[in-house]
Amino acid sequence: MGALNDEHFNVELDNGLNLNLVEEQEQVVISNISNAVNTLLAGLGEDSNREGLIKTPLRVAKALREGTRGYRQKVKDIVQGALFPEAGLDGDSGHAGGAGGLVVVRDLDLFSYCESCLLPFRVKCHVGYVPSGQRVVGLSKLSRVADVFARRLQDPQRLADEVCSSLYNGIRPAGVGVVLQCWHIEFPQVDCTCHEQINHPTVMDMQGWLKVSVCAGAGVFEKETGDVWGDFLALLKFRGVKLDKLRNGSSSSQRWCPSRSLDLLAINGHTNNWNPLSYKTSITAEPAPASMITAVATILLSLGENPSRKELVGTPRRFVQWLMNFKSSNLEMNLNGFGAEATCQIKSRKQMNKDGVRLRSDRVEFRSELNLPFWSQCEHHLLPFHGVVHIGYFRTEGIEPIGRAILQSIVHFHGWKLQVQERLTRQIVETVSSVFGGDVMAVVEANHICMISRGIEKVGSSTATIATLGRFSTDPSAKELFLQTVSDSTACGG
Amino acid sequence: MGALNDEHFNVELDNGLNLNLVEEQEQVVISNISNAVNTLLAGLGEDSNREGLIKTPLRVAKALREGTRGYRQKVKDIVQGALFPEAGLDGDSGHAGGAGGLVVVRDLDLFSYCESCLLPFRVKCHVGYVPSGQRVVGLSKLSRVADVFARRLQDPQRLADEVCSSLYNGIRPAGVGVVLQCWHIEFPQVDCTCHEQINHPTVMDMQGWLKVSVCAGAGVFEKETGDVWGDFLALLKFRGVKLDKLRNGSSSSQRWCPSRSLDLLAINGHTNNWNPLSYKTSITAEPAPASMITAVATILLSLGENPSRKELVGTPRRFVQWLMNFKSSNLEMNLNGFGAEATCQIKSRKQMNKDGVRLRSDRVEFRSELNLPFWSQCEHHLLPFHGVVHIGYFRTEGIEPIGRAILQSIVHFHGWKLQVQERLTRQIVETVSSVFGGDVMAVVEANHICMISRGIEKVGSSTATIATLGRFSTDPSAKELFLQTVSDSTACGG
Prior knowledge:
Low-confidence stretches of chain A: 1-17, 89-99, 190-204, 268-284, 332-344, 353-360
Helix content of chain A: 40-55%
Number of strands of chain A: 13
Strand order of the largest sheet of chain A: 5-2-3-6-7-8
Strand content of chain A: 15-25%
CATH superfamily of the largest domain in chain A: GTP cyclohydrolase I, C-terminal domain/NADPH-dependent 7-cyano-7-deazaguanine reductase, N-terminal domain
Structural class of chain A: alpha+beta
Family (chains A, B): Belongs to the GTP cyclohydrolase I family.
Radius of gyration of chain A: 26 Å
Mean pLDDT of chain A: 79
CATH topology of the largest domain in chain A: GTP Cyclohydrolase I, domain 2
GO molecular function, one term (chains A, B): GTP binding
Pathway (chains A, B): Cofactor biosynthesis; 7,8-dihydroneopterin triphosphate biosynthesis; 7,8-dihydroneopterin triphosphate from GTP: step 1/1
CATH architecture of the largest domain in chain A: 2-Layer Sandwich
Number of helices of chain A: 18
EC number (chains A, B): 3.5.4.16
InterPro entries (chains A, B): GTP-CH-I_C/QueF, GTP-CH-I_N, GTP_CycHdrlase_I, GTP_CycHdrlase_I_dom
Number of domains of chain A: 2
Oligomer: homodimer
Largest sheet of chain A: 6 strands, mixed
Shape of chain A: globular
């Protein structure tokens, strides 16, 4: 137990009378960010007075301040008082606790913000250090120091470098090594055929995420081929951490953010907007409004960043472009667009029904389409949630099953807007039911970025929602059949 | 992003001028707990002025206050303002988002304190609820509400019941179901033969922990065999959560704490103290001093608990008994005790060396003993850390290898005291080397309870330390050979 609130504690004592002043300044910052978020909502054509959104600007402002509190923290304050004298053997006979006494803390779950697009990314941080000067640091401080730098706008390599050098300077050990595994939410690709590529994505095993591993070393860890790196990586391997591509100091991690590859497309004359439905239909790429871009630059400034810093120059535009995908009207237009195939099917179904082709209504067959990927944006936190949708329905014999592409389009249609998962689930079954009739059930499984960032930080958590219509509501065995189908698919896909 | 600090924020605004007064009262509480911790350290025969311990009382006090902040939190404050209107279908056609619209949040990592022995235990919390009244609750609030009750002294079943009923009353949904998987640190059994039972314990897969799963339901979840429970459990199964033994309302979870079974032993006339070395030698069971028991009762009172509450009556005594295992002098005495076999080996080795049996010094063989379990108590936080030790050494041909039981005793000897992992690792190689001579290497892999509780809450994290002596320090291939051996063992044992 313990050192938990040391810093907080000290700050409170030190500040004394200044507390109210600091609080006042913080209110101004929160208010500035809230106003900027209001501008963003307006730019998306949203009514910021509707109930789901009314507190969103304040929520986003507070969470951003908390999520980037690293700008206001000092490593010195954290490490101070957590260095403990510890005898070591530095004699001829060996180095237990001395130069050979590697200490490794593995699997520290953190999150950070991508400086290229402003979306949070997940970090699994592994720190190794070799004590010297006969002192060790409290283990939890390795986590706290890493957190200081994670809670800023970052690039994986810089994050690794900063954690490494600050620990090296703060603890003054024989050496420090840092390995980060980072996951960035993946965007649907232009000409995306995600629904074919991803056969059995399971939310937990990080499909739908781009991964990059980086490392940094100082002191005895400086040489990447050194002996001590071998020990460090061996200890990581014990915990199942396998590092295929380890990058050190390479500039390539700069381009890990998927928004960067879209920059290139823009340069090459392609669309400069993400196109969620592009494999079915084209949407008008809406330009990012200047007012929104300015609003995001204001937010960067309020967080204590310099929007002119070279890595941040394109960030407001990229973030706004990401947001513009969730402009409701964009998608409304496109519902018509995706209809080419659907309309055909609807017509033929309606015709069949009219013609009484439904000869024997009990001759129905259970059908399902599983693992349809989706992306959406949480309207409470303006953060993505994404995952897969499973849809089950009953097909009357003689009628064509609903095409997977159509179901995928319906999923995208309801996903690409400011949403909540419960509503998304309901809207999907309602749409499928209203177009194709009858008995529909959907399970939506999602990772919410708002659950891994924001102080909640429930990294492993995931959310599932169920909606049922018709027979799936009244007949438990129908529901069970569908859930079993999903379960079987998950088992074989894992 | 968002609602993160809503409560904190509001409290700050509401309190206004009372802030200093509250701060003053808090200082008194912290000071009371610190004094009690000082009494505990004195009872353990420790010098609370030695550098490793000097800040321990304050650390423990602050962490305990933070870890039990649930006593000072109100569910109403958390849920208020996080209920969002959401249309549902409650018509004849089905219940999307209505009574059939199950919402499940899985794998929320929490920790709580065992009311039987005061040690923290890990919780994986799964919450399902069926919205009604056309409103849903922000997903993160399910986590926050669960956390309020986790951060108190708890028993798994009561925790499940309290989370369930408070969500049911706070959200007023059609029903709430709660499933908890709880892990309690395991104590070595009297007449323990752990080193034989546990073949390949890996730190991460929760060996060395006792597990219990409990559930609670309200509204449509009240009947345990109901339809909606089937859906909930199916969604948990998607994420690999398999529940073999689910308890509901049974009193059996009361007895999950291993300290409880020792109560029974005491009643039956057996030792009432845990005996870490009992399979080798007997130790004098030291009675728990009354001053220490009173100190723990004072802590309970300071946290806002009633030490006379029936479930807490025996807790101070049990906690002190656990602590007494880490009384340094206890163990010093017993080093002689465990020597029966060791002394014999040492004699024969020394004799061999004297007689020049070491015919050809280059004829040595690499030997290792892996996965020796250990328990220890972090001296910075007064919280357990435990895991496994791997020891490698070179055996001169013709000399008997070191018995596993002896290495296990050395590990226990250095484990059962107030420790830090770095020192433990060094002391193990030093002892093995001084008794048996030469080239020794140890890897200690541990879970630190202080890393999963205390606001750090890095649940998946684990710590590994290496110490090397002799050839393992100078010959990289020797070290590599050992690490590869451990790696192979981990792979086959998983």
